[in-house]
Structures are given as structure tokens and as C-alpha cells.
Design a protein that fits this description.
It contains 8 helices and 18 strands. The structure holds iron/sulfur cluster.
Length: 342
Amino acid sequence: MNPNYDFTKIPFDRIVHLGQISMLESDLFTVSWLLGRYCNFKCSYCWEHGRSDKVDHRPTELCLKTIDQIKGQARANGFNSFHFSLSGGEPTLHPGYFDILEKLARDKPYTNYTSIHMTTNLSKNMKWFEKYTEYAKEFNRASITASYHKEYMKDKSLFASKLQYLESAGVHTTINMVMVPDLFDELWDVANYFKNKQLNVTLKPQSDPHANYVVSGYTEEQLKILHNEMKQEINNQATMQVRMIDDQGKEWYMDQAERFNAFNFNCFKGWICSSGFRSIIIREPCGSIKRSYSCIDEPLGNIETGFDLFLEPTICKSPSCVSSADSKIPKRKDGCVIPLWK
Ligand code: SF4
């Protein structure tokens, strides 16, 4: 893809169909699993319920059983490719983390495709990451989003070298940076430090406490950076994660759904959305299983008592779709006749 692709040209008000390309073109079912809120960091800006000092992990056996239930229901809905995205809190602190990867790896030959992802503060030591890469190579794709937390960043070069090691072992990485308006210039310098080390950086705008819209305080210049800079690359080629179609049938692309919020493109109320049918989220500490993070729908169930996937794509009732895990799930505007996927 052209590395100069200009996201500001996308006619967001005329988009009628969108989705993560891998979901549009395959039978991929996605699971976003928040393994617990327990975290070894205590960032001053973390949301009240974003982290906990209390260890709140579900037993490993229950997690493994839940994987079987997810796969059984997803297969019944016609999906036999899987993407498991593990986050927290800090997911690497779950005592059964490698047991979960091992279970997914064991079933991989019986799937059409399996990929794993984690969002981590990258605090584990190199030995842990060496073990992680042994598991990661069992999958079709493994990727990591490493959250940059300024207050805990004693050694930027160690942070960078862990990611360079992961990249060399075939794990795709990106560094997640929330570009707080007051610290924008400082964070932009840090982002360029990593970029100069050939590492991908995801620039995220700061959102209001309900994550519905981008906070005020950005200059025009800063918004331009959030809209178009730090495109995701693999081997120096721009990569696109999301495909959109406008009301004239023209296709448009975006490197990461995270960028949607920088354009305030996150309202899909009334659209037909496939979350809950071909994707779920599991969140703690309540153990709730929902169609997506943003959705106001009743939960599909609970990790302790079971859940039921939707049997077909269902209308979005929610005022905004704020997490990129949600917004990239295939969906189309009411009245659009383009099939949701191939
Ligand atoms: S809020 Fe939920 S139902 Fe609505 S578009 Fe987002 S994921 Fe789909």
C-alpha cells in the first residue's frame, strides 16, 4: 500500500460498510479477553476500574474450559479461524498465561488459522519473552501492543530492545502512546525515538472519561499528526487493517482502527453489526461476556455460568463504538446491500 496514503481524504460521513480485512476475507472469529485488572503498575492517569492491586484472575482451568465453549459456539456459527487478544490489567501476570497459549497452540491444526495478540506494559524480563516467543511461533501470527507508560519508563532503550528482539523472532509489535495534549511535544519526541529504531508506534488521541469523543486542546498541527503520522509498517511497507466502502462503492483503507477516534468516526447506531455473532469480549472483575466493550446490549452471559452467541448479525443500539476492538468488527449501514463479508 502507498506509504503516503492520506486518511484525511476518507469521506467518513459517506461510509456504509467496514471491517477488519482479515474478518472480511476469512472465517475469523475474534475474542478480546481481559484476563483480570491486576497490574504491577499504578499510572496516575489509569481509569478507576482499569487496574487493581488485588489479584483477580479466574482459575486457569476455567479459562481453558471457556476456550472450548467459545470455539464450540463459534464453529456452530460457521467460523473456524480464531484471533485471541489477551489484555488486562497486565495479562502476563495471569499464572496460567502460558497454559492458555499452549491450549490454543494444541488446537491450531484443527483451525483454518489462529493468531494471538496481547497488550502489555512489557515489564516481564527477557527470559519471559524468550519463553513467549517459543509459544508464539506455533501460531499463524503473533502480535503485541506494548503500552508506553511515561511514569514507569526508566530505560527507553531496554523497552526498545525487548521489542526489537520480539520483531526478530517474528512477533509483530507496536507501541501504544496516548498523546495527552499537554505533553504532546515530549511524547512526539519519544514516538520518533522509537520510530528511528524501526519500531511501529500507534498514536492514540486522549478521549473524554466515557471515551466517546476526543478531548479538546489539540492544535491543528497536532490533529494532523494524529490523523496521518506513524503509519503501521511491515518491512517498510504500509499495512492496512481496515477496509471501508462508501455510498458510491469506492474502497478506502486505514492502517489501524485506533485512528477512527481521531476522526470522531465511532457512531454506528442503527447499523447491522456482527459483534456477538463472530466476536466477543470477556471482561473482569465481573466475568461478563459481551458482544463488545462499547455495547449497551445485555451481556451474552458470564464466564462462570456460560454464554450464548448471537445466531446472526444484530442491529447496533449503542450511542458510540469507542474501542478499536469493537469498531473494526464487520458492520454495514442499514439499507446497504453489500454482504457483510465474503
Ligand atoms: S457499539 Fe457494539 S453493536 Fe454498536 S457498532 Fe460497536 S460493536 Fe457493533
